[in-house]
Amino acid sequence: MFKAIVIDKNEEKGYHSALIEVxxxxxxxxxxxxxxxxxxxxxxxxLAITGKGPVVRKFPMVPGVDLVGRVIKSESDRFATDDLxxxxxxxxxxxxxxxxAEKARLNSDWLIAMPEGLTPAQVxxxxxxxxTAMLCVQAIEDKGVKPGDGEVLVTGANGxxxxxxxxxxxxxxxxxxxxxxxxxEADYLKALGASDIIDRQxxxxxxxxxxxxxxxxxxxxxxxxxxANACAQTRYGGVVAACGLAQGMDFPATVAPFILRGxxxxxxxxxxxxxxxxxxxxxxxxxxxxxxxxxxxSHEIRLDDVVQTAAExxxxxxxxxxxxKIQD
Length: 328
Prior knowledge:
The two termini are about 15 Å apart. This protein is of the alpha/beta class. The protein is globular. The protein is about 30% helix and about 25% strand. It is built from ten helices and 15 strands.
C-alpha cells in the first residue's frame, strides 16, 4: 500500500479529491516502477484536483504532471534499478496516473535521466513550469531575437511559467517587462530580473487589431485578449511564444500582426514534446539557473497539503512554484 492523491467521480460523492491509501496492484500498466521523491502542483493539477477544468479524462485518477524518482523495478533497456528519472507531461495526471503519489508505474519512453548538475528537489522546483519557460525562451532565441532588439513581455508573471521566464530572460540579458494583476508583487518580480512592471489590465481588455509596436518578443501564459493584444503590440519580425490559457482559450484577434508585421505566433507544447527537445531544454536550465533561484521561485509542501493548496492556486493566492515532497 502507498499514499496518493486520488480524484474520483461517482453518484455518492460527485467529483472529489482526497489523500488515500492505494494498493500497488491498482497502478496502471508501464515498464518502469518508480518511487516518487518529489512532484509538483501545477495550474493544470489545480484544475484537475478542484474540478474547475476538464483535465481528467479517466477516473479514478492520480494527478501530478511532473515527478522525479528512483527506479524500483524496470523492464526497460533504458533504465535500471536505482536510476533517477524525470517525467513531464505525456498525459500523466490526465489519462495515466501521475506524480502526486508515493509510487508511479510509467512508460519508459516518457522518462529522461536526471539532468546533470541538478538535484531532485531543484528539478521539481522547476518542473513543467521551468521546462516550459525554457522552451519559450528557446523559441525566441531560435527566431533570432537578441537581448539588444528591445523589450520582452512576460504575461502571468507571478505564475510558475512567468516567474521562470522572467528569471531566464533576465539572466540572458533581455530587458524584461512583467505583466501581473498583483501590483504588491512588484518587488518580487524585480528581484527575479524584471526591469519594468505593468498592470495586466493594460492587456486583458479588447483592443485594436494593430497597436503601437513595443515588444521584440512575448512569452504568454494567459491567452484570450491578453494574447491578442500582445500580438498586436509586437514589433516587426517579433515572436510571441504562447503556452497557456489562464484568461481563456479563445483568441479574439485578426491576422494583421502576422501578415503586416511578420510576427510569428509560436505555440509551445510541453506535454508531447520529443525527447531531444526535452533534453535540450533541461540542459539549458541546468546551465542557466543557480541554486538560489530555486529557493526564490518555489516553496515546498507535503502530500497532505496538496488538496487545500490546489484550491488556493486556482484562486490566485499562490506565488511561483509549489514543490511537493513525497519521500524523506
